[in-house]
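hey can u check if this looks right to u? its 139 residues, i copy pasted from the old doc so theres a chance i mangled smth
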Amino acid sequence: MLASCAALAAAFVSVGDLGRAAAMGGDPATIAEPTGCWSGEWRSCRSGHHGPLKATISPCGDGKYRAEFRGRFFGVFPFRYDVVLNVVGADEQGLHLAGSKHLGRLFGTFCFAATVTDCRFEATYRSAKDNGTFSMGRR
């Protein structure tokens, strides 16, 4: 599973903070800031299930952000979990983040790779049993 997480993150050039990310893409003022509140939808590519999704993202230092995801699956079952997302790159497409979270024996480890712009948060997730997308806008 760790190799799978590493493969998701390997799609981006590794950097440690926004300053170094800015060096890759130019003016630090133009790099998207992921902090704030987001809402949209999650969708499983494997099962086709989907549902509402909200996130609150806050900085936690050293090129890292804490994302609290909240949503529902099967329309009625709520979920909530936190993930630390690391800045792994920046380019003309946006700020790139990656992280992973173990969600217990039933669900296993989920790996995330996200691209953030000023108004969109687009991510993919992958685990041993599922893979899919998060698509959100600022609220």
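The chain has one domain: 2-138.
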